[in-house]
TrEMBL record:
This is CRISPR-associated protein, Csa1 family. InterPro entries: CRISPR-ass_Csa1 (IPR009260), PDDEXK-like_dom_sf (IPR011604). It comes from Thermogladius calderae (strain DSM 22663 / VKM B-2946 / 1633). Gene3D superfamilies: 3.90.320.10. It comes from the Archaea.
Length: 283
């Protein structure tokens, strides 16, 4: 089973995108630091989550309406619970490894310490969550050892659950990025890849650019799913192109307009039964 953070593999996949970025360089007006003027400047500051803008599971965006205007909480469906468990496992592993390294511990000691610390919460697929946790730890610490041997480096090459202020873009002041490494945004997903998943990479890249004024042009979607032999891990490198930036900003603007103008969206015609609001919309 490949590790979740095969860093060299990840970087190699991103390098394939360099040609795209040379052919389609990002326009200045679409950088996050252009937050004081359209199209990056929002029409209202509603503190939206990146997942609200990027999670286009409901085509009409009625889910955002139900949460924000009706004050309803989504039901915890099985796919949602499974996704949360794996997500929590991966980020917990990165956090624990990071803590041990910042204290100057040896990688073997960190591994021993961290392996005994993770207790998956809830009644979901805890075996998968444990596998994801162990796999992340082993790969991350393996990468650190490799760095030490090859270059004498000692740092963890990633920052997990990085907080970034999305306020200038009309987003939440407390956005949390799964992993940020070498100017690359990493976002974990479960389930089948969907084209709109790359919107989340664009949202975080824009927010990072607004806060730190450094270009963030690449991201990776990492899909973690159970398989017969353990875990299946899929990487999808993403170039944060002009088109993708515009798409994210348009989605943000549509949600802002819907909420500000008090326009209730209709139910979709093909609602999946796995939608956390299915019972609200179809009772
Ligand atoms: S049930 Fe349908 S309309 Fe309602 S939130 Fe879900 S996808 Fe949207």
């Amino acid at each position: 089973m490949p590790g979740l953070f095969a860093r060299r593999l990840v970087l190699r996949s991103v390098r394939r995108l360099y040609a795209w970025s040379r052919a389609d360089p990002v326009e200045e007006e679409l950088r996050g630091w252009s937050w004081d003027r359209p199209p990056v400047k929002p029409r209202a500051y509603l503190g939206l989550g990146v997942s609200e803008v990027a999670g286009k599971y409901c085509p009409t965006r009625r889910d955002v309406w139900l949460r924000r205007k009706m004050g309803l909480a989504p039901e915890t469906t099985e796919p949602l619970a499974k996704g949360r468990l794996v997500h929590e496992a991966v980020t917990a592993a990165v956090r624990c490894a990071s803590r041990g390294l910042s204290r100057g511990w040896e990688t073997w000691d960190i591994l021993t310490y961290c392996l005994g610390r993770f207790r998956p919460q809830g009644n979901g697929d805890t075996a998968t969550a444990l596998k994801a946790y162990k796999s992340t730890l082993v790969t991350l610490l393996g990468e650190v050892e490799y760095e030490r041997l090859v270059s004498g480096g000692s740092g963890l090459p990633v920052v997990s659950e990085m907080k970034v202020d999305g306020t200038p873009l009309g987003l939440s002041p407390q956005l949390s990025i799964d992993v940020y490494a070498e100017n690359i945004v990493v976002d974990f997903k479960t389930g089948a890849p969907r084209d709109f998943h790359k919107l989340s990479i664009a949202g975080y890249a824009l927010a990072l650019e607004a806060e730190y004024e450094v270009p963030v042009d690449y991201g990776i979607l990492v899909y973690v799913n159970p398989s017969d032999s353990g875990l299946r891990v899929l990487y999808r490198p993403v170039y944060v192109s002009n088109e993708l930036r515009r798409w994210f900003l348009e989605e943000r603007d549509e949600i802002v307009d819907m909420l500000v103008s008090n326009r209730e969206p209709p139910k979709d015609k093909n609602c999946p039964q796995t939608c956390p609001f299915y019972r609200v919309c179809h009772q």
